[in-house]
């Protein structure tokens, strides 16, 4: 029986894995318990299970590069990926807590969200669905990186929708989108 | 009603509209034009105004990358004409897409996001799935010629000599060509060796609808060592399947039409290349032979471009295609084309998600397109997505389904057909 590294670490920390699913303490140590407090590391709260599973698949197969996710996912079976996807999906969604967002930037971002039809995949409240991630309340600098690397084709998605859409965005639009989506109440 | 008021608000200057709308989303802000200045042009023709409700109704089209276990495949949902039978040829090929048969019966299967190339061996009816390459960059394209496997990644084509003798320890790939763009959008490739012993390599448009760089929206061909490259077709948005007509030897290819014109337009195309190097198939100026592009069609005439020989439905995502060259199926299938339709995303009522059969008339034009393998669409959701088809030496038809990571085999038994 193969035991994933992250699972093995978690097992040492918390004892045997229960039938309810794998321990995700190893995950939340960096990603936070729903809301990430760490620059560059995305919040995972409210993510659909399929999105997480697909990203883990891509990390395992080297189709998405981010240390240490590639090495953590490397020993996982498909069933492990699905179990982690389901467990991560139970984390509470991040909520923005900070000063009120600048209305002008939010208006510009909302226009871009409508123009590029973000809601057709991410949902009316940008909460994600199935293989499409929740982006509402995500960390701002992570959103900038994601959109920028989709634009340059450094990052691939499940399909190239985001490459197509981000290819049409200017750096200023990316900045406004990330700003407003991160602060979307 | 709400849409009307939204539209009116959106037609005012942005600032005024924002005040009136108090935070509502303005789908199309119109910048103010000052007297004496040229009009301010917003570059949103590509994605015209659509109501929030209409956008939401499109829904996302995502699916697992992992393969569906054999016992969970939705086989009982699939339908075929009378006398045809479907069985699972192989399963567990996550994201398996393009198909190509080797001389010794090995089925090579490319993938996109899984980054893998699979080989399905077939010895005395016993089949096994091997991963012969992994960690590749969208290795959608697989071609086979004289014992050598060719694999197309987004920006590189490599060969694996004498592959069928080395499936357990494949030789190190040798790159034969890498003068290719790196765009993810329409960057994955279908490849195939033609009757002229040249490798045909498409390069899609790097987005939905744009004036492509000189390097994109075309089909190239080259010698099998990657030399003597020439552009044989231009104005091709994104072809992910082609074959040569066994009667005319002409390259015949599917091409996916642009998105966001409307629910019903433009159609995906079936095209024939008759004059290599001299034909432009219209993109982005003219779609489906008779629809000038709303943005780039101004000043252009569809008459200046090669029109398709057949229309395959809007947003159906017509991908893999093969002429039927076997003898197992009834005579009416001889010389016609099986075409895999991956299924739509840019459409409220989903379409595609089937394999169709196109008949050609004596003038080479499509006379009919009939559903063949159906049932992949259930409650407006795709439960399977056909990508490619392949006729086997015994005349059966293989179909890949990248949603389920499975290969199906369709055979015909006249005895079981209704009298």
From TrEMBL, chain A:
Maturation and modification: Binds 2 heme c groups covalently per subunit.
One annotated Gene Ontology cellular component of this protein: periplasmic space
Signal sequence bounds: 1-19
Compartments reported by the entry: Periplasm
Positions with a binding annotation for heme c 2: 118, 121-122, 162
PROSITE patterns: CYTC (PS51007)
Binding positions for heme c 1 per the UniProt entry: 27, 30-31, 69
Keywords, sorted A to Z: Electron transport, Heme, Iron, Metal-binding, Periplasm, Signal, Transport
GO molecular function, one term: heme binding
Keyword Heme: yes
Residue ranges occupied by any Cytochrome c domain in the UniProt entry: 10-92, 98-185
PANTHER family (UniProt xref): CBB3-TYPE CYTOCHROME C OXIDASE SUBUNIT FIXP, CYTOCHROME C4
Protein name, per record: C-type cytochrome
Protein source organism: Methylobacterium soli
């Amino acid at each position: 029986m193969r035991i994933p590294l992250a699972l093995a670490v978690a097992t040492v920390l918390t004892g045997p894995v229960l039938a309810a699913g794998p321990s995700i303490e190893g995950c939340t140590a960096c990603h936070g318990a729903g809301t990430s407090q760490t620059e560059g590391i995305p919040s995972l709260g409210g993510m659909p299970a399929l999105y997480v599973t697909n990203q883990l698949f891509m990390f395992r197969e080297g189709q998405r590069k981010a240390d240490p996710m590639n090495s953590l996912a490397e020993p996982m079976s498909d069933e492990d990926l699905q179990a982690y996807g389901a467990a991560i999906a139970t984390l509470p969604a991040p909520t923005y807590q900070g000063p009120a967002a600048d209305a002008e930037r939010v208006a510009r971002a909302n226009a871009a969200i409508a123009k590029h039809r973000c809601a057709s995949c991410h949902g009316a409240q940008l909460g994600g669905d199935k293989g499409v991630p929740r982006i509402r309340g995500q960390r701002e600098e992570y959103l900038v990186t994601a959109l920028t690397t989709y634009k340059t084709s450094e990052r691939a998605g499940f399909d190239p929708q985001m490459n197509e859409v981000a290819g049409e965005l200017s750096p200023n639009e990316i900045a406004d989108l990330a700003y407003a989506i991160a602060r979307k109440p | 009603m709400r849409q009307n008021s939204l539209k009116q608000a959106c037609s005012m200057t942005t600032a005024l509209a924002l005040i009136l709308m108090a935070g509502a989303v303005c789908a199309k802000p119109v910048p103010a034009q000052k007297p004496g200045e040229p009009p301010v042009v917003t570059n949103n023709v590509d994605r015209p105004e659509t109501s929030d409700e209409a956008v939401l109704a499109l829904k996302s089209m995502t699916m697992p990358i992992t393969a569906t276990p054999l016992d969970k495949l939705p086989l009982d949902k699939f339908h075929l004409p009378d006398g045809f039978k479907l069985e699972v040829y192989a399963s567990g090929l996550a994201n398996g897409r393009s198909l190509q048969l080797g001389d010794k019966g090995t089925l090579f299967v490319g993938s996109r996001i899984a980054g893998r190339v699979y080989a399905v061996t077939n010895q005395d009816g016993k089949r096994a799935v091997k991963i012969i390459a992994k960690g590749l960059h969208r290795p959608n394209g697989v071609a086979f010629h004289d014992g050598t496997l060719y694999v197309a990644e987004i920006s590189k084509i490599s060969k694996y000599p004498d592959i069928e003798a080395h499936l357990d320890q494949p030789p190190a790939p040798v790159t034969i060509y890498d003068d290719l763009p790196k765009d993810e959008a329409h960057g994955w490739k279908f490849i195939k060796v033609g009757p002229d012993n040249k490798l045909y390599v498409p390069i899609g448009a790097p987005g939905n609808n744009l004036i492509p760089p000189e390097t994109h929206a075309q089909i190239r061909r080259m010698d099998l060592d990657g030399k003597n490259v020439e552009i044989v077709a231009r104005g091709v948005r994104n072809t992910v399947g082609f074959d040569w007509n066994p009667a005319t030897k002409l390259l015949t290819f599917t091409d996916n039409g642009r998105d966001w014109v409307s629910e019903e337009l433009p159609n995906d195309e079936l095209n024939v290349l008759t004059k290599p190097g001299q034909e432009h198939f219209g993109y982005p100026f003219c779609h489906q032979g008779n629809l000038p592009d709303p943005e780039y069609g101004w000043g252009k005439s569809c008459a200046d471009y090669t029109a398709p020989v057949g229309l395959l439905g809007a947003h159906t995502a017509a991908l893999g295609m093969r002429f039927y060259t076997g003898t197992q199926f009834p005579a009416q299938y001889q010389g016609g084309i099986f075409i895999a339709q991956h299924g739509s995303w840019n459409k409220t009522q989903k379409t595609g998600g089937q394999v169709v059969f196109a008949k050609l008339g004596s003038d080479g034009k499509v006379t009919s397109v009939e559903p063949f393998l159906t049932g992949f669409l259930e409650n407006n959701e795709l439960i399977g997505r056909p990508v490619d088809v392949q006729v086997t030496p015994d005349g059966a038809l293989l179909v890949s389904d990248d949603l389920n990571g499975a290969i199906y085999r369709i055979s015909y038994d006249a005895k079981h057909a209704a009298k």
